[in-house]
Amino acid sequence: MKMNKEQATKFIAKRIAAELKSGTLVNLGVGIPTLVSDFVGPERDIQMHGENGVIGVGNAAFEVINNTSKGISKAEEIDEDVINSGAGTTAVEPGASFFDSATSFAIIRGGHVDVTVLGTMEVAENGDIANYMIPGKRVAGMGGAMDLCVGAKKVIVATFHTQGSRSKLLRKCTLPLTASKAVNTVVTELGVFDVTEQGFTIREYNPAYTFEEIQAATNASLFIPETVKPVDSVYYENL
Amino acid sequence: MDKVKTIEEAIANIHDGQTIMIGGFGGNGSPHSLIEALIAKGVKDLTIICNDAGNPNFGVGRFFKEKRVKKLYASFIGANPEACEDLANGEFEVVLIPQGTLAESIRAGGAGLGGILTKTGIGTLVSEGKQKINIKGEDYLVEEAIHADVALIYAAKVDRIGNVSYHGSSRAHSPSMAMAADYVVVEAKEIVEVGEINPDNVHTQSVFINSIVLKGEQK
User: Which residues pair with A117 in a beta bridge?
Assistant: First the structure.
């Protein structure tokens, strides 16, 4: 299906949610990655880690993570310690935990996060990722992204395939790197791409596009394995 | 020793040009009353060490709004467009530090260590000019410990000698900052008598705290 921006965003988040395995610990970055939580119900038994110092399951934990990063506790009706970010006094489900930044990044660097989902400005065929600054233009900062790229067992990038006419999937990054050779999989509105020895290897493709069209939108050579298949329509229907 | 003071007393010796650690994450868990008091006092040319630049006019963002920052050590400024603009205009200098490196370098600063070894930042601008050490076949960056003149933190509950109990997700770098500065003030939402905090629930021990102020206190 050809998608508008909103549909593409939901598609990418929904497809990535299906990549996550039960019993794992996952960290979601800002932007499209945050929306992945909309497609991960409690029945999936996936725990979310927030750099600000929380591990938990369910929507309440997501709210603690997201509200903290937005500084949303400015609103007087919300507990400034962000424990009451939602509607009730029980902000996180049983089993959640709070901790400080040093512990939070011991969890990340120490290899205890199974998957991180990050947005990006550029990603290269060797797994290089650049998502924290555009020299002379925009300096956002890396936040926890450099540590996540080094420490998480798997790095999934959630991004639109192109920005304007420019592909975000490149032979080589042009912006300062967040990490080198870190990315395992890239999910865009055009498909699912694994970073392998052959470069970007297309695992699943959006059947609304031909391989030629997907290649034309990519500034690196795509490898098309025999196992390639169209994305299941369940991920883009009724978005 | 009872360390409870008025905010005015607690910040009396904090002056222009000092290096100050500020607790909080995106402004959550920041010592808002202390920040306001420092602004009212007119303290300027500060070197701020914080997780981030706060949000516009919120948390550490207040210092940017009031143009009190000379240099910032932080992992993220993207949530504060005002600070981004000031940075682009050269109004202050920034040292971007990966959040985990910031956390651990502050912890090291408080723990008597010279620095830390981390893989984070290898192959990026962060590694420029820094020593690398190979241990068991793996390269690590040497990151120096971080220390400050002053640390200002916030906590939900503090007893009168300075035992601190944090609440919710407001902890962030505060426990490490409390160990890594010469003078530490904790802004408490609630000040309780000694003995009212179960020793099991003390997250930052009283030895690290110099002064205690009550959040929202008007001088």
Answer: A28, A156
